[in-house]
Amino acid sequence: MKYFVKFFVITFFLIISTTAFAEQKIVVLDMKYVLNQSTAGKGAQDFLKKKFQDNAKKFAKLEKELKTEETDLLKNKNSLSEEEYAKKSEELRKKVFDFQTKRRSSLDELGKQRAEAKKIMNEKIEPILNNYINENNISIIIYKKNVIGGSKGFDITDVIVETLNKDFPSLNLK
């Protein structure tokens, strides 16, 4: 029993001492901040926002025209024959369906452009992160959204944003 206790104590101290000497460098990266505050990220967001607003204005104008056409049709319902009213009503339904289809495809296209911009940004950030890992002997980079707390000294977000701004100033979206 005495030897068992000594064996256990010695093994315990050996395990603790080996892990104490192993240095693990763990840093934190706020990817949302990198995507939103880098010049390329801001440029992409501005481009996509402007395109969305332009589409919204265009579709608001078309929607207003369709509503006007609908109110005119309803006002003239009594003066039109049943066949003519049904014909114009069907034409209006087709226009509304086309409008909805165009608006949906426009939003889908905008979503695809946003996803493509994010993919390109991630592709450009990856070599910068790998270079930083190799230069600074980093063991692990953890996303900030997965961290509850920690020292500011572990946050490399600003360094990555600076490097990204220097190496990759624009996305050139069209």
Judged by helices, strands and strand pairing, the structural class is mainly alpha
Poorly predicted regions are: none
Number of strands: 2
Read across the widest sheet, the strand sequence of neighbours is: 1-2
Tally the helices.
5
CATH superfamily: Skp domain
Descriptive account of the structure:
The protein has 5 helices and 2 strands, in the order H-E-H-H-H-E-H. The protein has 174 residues and is mainly alpha-helical. The protein is elongated, with a radius of gyration of 30 Å. Strands 1-2 form a two-stranded parallel ribbon. Helices cover 75% and strands 5% of the residues. Helix 2 (31-37) packs across helix 3 (39-75). The longest helix has 55 residues, at 82-136. It has one domain (23-167): Skp domain (Protein Binding, DinI Protein, Chain A). The mean pLDDT is 85.
What labels would you give this structure?
Protein Binding, DinI Protein, Chain A, 5 helices, mainly alpha, two-stranded parallel ribbon, 174 residues
How do you describe this structure in short?
75% of the residues lie in helices and 5% in strands.
Write the layout of secondary structure elements.
Elements: H1 2-21, E1 26-29, H2 31-37, H3 39-75, H4 82-136, E2 140-143, H5 157-167
Parallel strand pairs: 1-2
